[in-house]
UniProtKB/TrEMBL annotation:
Residues 5-224 form the ABC transporter domain. Keywords: ATP-binding, Hydrolase, Nucleotide-binding, Transport. PANTHER family: CELL DIVISION ATP-BINDING PROTEIN FTSE, LIPOPROTEIN-RELEASING SYSTEM ATP-BINDING PROTEIN LOLD. It comes from the Bacteria. InterPro entries: AAA+_ATPase (IPR003593), ABC_transporter-like_ATP-bd (IPR003439), ABC_transporter-like_CS (IPR017871), MacB-like_ATP-bd (IPR017911), P-loop_NTPase (IPR027417). Signal peptide: none annotated. It comes from Kurthia zopfii. PROSITE patterns: ABC_TRANSPORTER_1, ABC_TRANSPORTER_2. This is ABC transport system ATP-binding protein. GO terms for molecular function: ATP binding; ATP hydrolysis activity; transmembrane transporter activity. Belongs to the ABC transporter superfamily. GO terms for cellular component: membrane protein complex. The keyword Nucleotide-binding applies.
Length: 226
């Protein structure tokens, strides 16, 4: 079975004036199909850096980044963009929706970029909107949605390309407790029902019960919480 995400001895430094700050130190992480993993830790500990490297948004200084068994460490920017488009679904703290598109067109855009907007994709978009409870708002402008509704659109959009890997960066930060559990529950359902892999960076301890494993950032690496 191909592993959706594997980070092997990943290192990352940032420059702060004349100093080099080591954020990630020989970090290792494996996420299998059907596994929902959380990464927690204080601000500045490197959680979002882990997610950016795993999602081909940022390069590591050394180590391997394997997506579906392929080491993308040496990929060009164009090759990485194709990996993001085809294999990874992103859910961000801010929904990052396109302001001038309605709800359904947010999903349509994903498959149009991949050149795959066809009858199957149209049905998938409708099915996804139904699964997140937004069928009745498919034609609604996104600026008229609540925060929770916008995040549900973002989740449906992240699932639209049927990715093997789902990455969520503080997806509940702007939501109240009940909406937070609703949103993380939707991610967990997709992972477990459709055998996906997911990594969620979060400060929200109240949603960790949805996750199969919880890792804590520790000295630039990850430590499994028992």
């Amino acid at each position: 079975m191909i592993t959706p995400l594997k980070l092997v001895d990943v290192n990352k430094q940032f420059k702060d004036g004349d100093r080099q700050i080591e954020i990630l130190k020989n970090l290792n992480l494996t996420v299998e199909k059907g596994e929902f993993v959380a990464v927690i830790g204080p601000s500045g500990s490197g959680k979002s850096t882990v997610l950016s490297i795993a999602g081909a948004l940022q390069s590591s200084d050394s180590g391997q980044v394997l997506i579906n068994g392929r080491d993308i460490s040496g990929y060009s920017d164009k090759e990485k963009s194709l990996v993001r488009l085809k294999s990874i679904g992103y859910i961000f703290q801010a929904a990052n929706l396109v302001p001038f598109l309605n709800v359904r067109d947010q999903l349509k855009l994903v498959t149009e970029l991949a050149g795959e907007w066809n009858d199957d994709a149209k049905k998938r978009a409708d099915d996804l909107l139904e699964s997140v409870g937004l069928t009745s708002k498919a034609k609604k402008a996104v600026q008229h949605l609540s925060g929770g509704e916008k995040q549900r659109v973002a989740i449906a959009r992240a699932f639209m390309n049927n990715p093997e890997l789902i990455l969520a960066d503080e997806p509940t930060a702007a939501l109240d407790a009940s909406r937070s559990r609703e949103i993380v529950g939707l991610i967990a359902q997709e992972v477990h029902d459709k055998n996906k892999a997911a990594v969620m960076v979060t400060h929200d301890e109240s949603v960790l019960d949805f996750c199969d494993k919880v890792y804590e950032m520790h000295d630039g690496g990850l430590r499994l919480r028992k």
